[in-house]
Amino acid sequence: MKKRISIIVFGIILAIFIGTVKVEAASADITATKATAEVGDNVSITVNFTAAAWNLKVSGEGISSKGYASQTDDLSERNTVDTLKLDTSKVGTYVIYLIGDITDQNGNTIKINKSTTVNINQKTVQPDPKPEENDPVVPTKSNNANLSNLGINPKDYDFNNFKSSRTSYVATVPNDIEEIEVWYKQSDTKSTVSITAEKGLKVSNGKVSGLKVGTNKITITVTAEAGNTKKYTITVTRKEEGAPVEPPVEDPTDEQPDVPEEPTDNEVTDSTKTGEGIETLTIAGITLKPEFDTNIYEYEAILEEDLRTLEIDVKTTSDKYRVVVAGNEDLKNGENLITLIVYDAENTVIATYQVTVMKNTVNQNEINNIFGELKKEEMIKRIAIISALVVIIILIVIYIIMKAKMKKAKNKTNKEETKNIDEEIDNNLENEFKMHNEIEEEPSLGNEIKSDTEKSIETESVIKTENNLESDINFEDIMMKIRNIENITKTGKLSNSEDIQKIENIENTKTIEQKIEDIMQTDKKKGKHF
Question: What is the pTM of this model?
Answer without folding.
Answer: 0.29
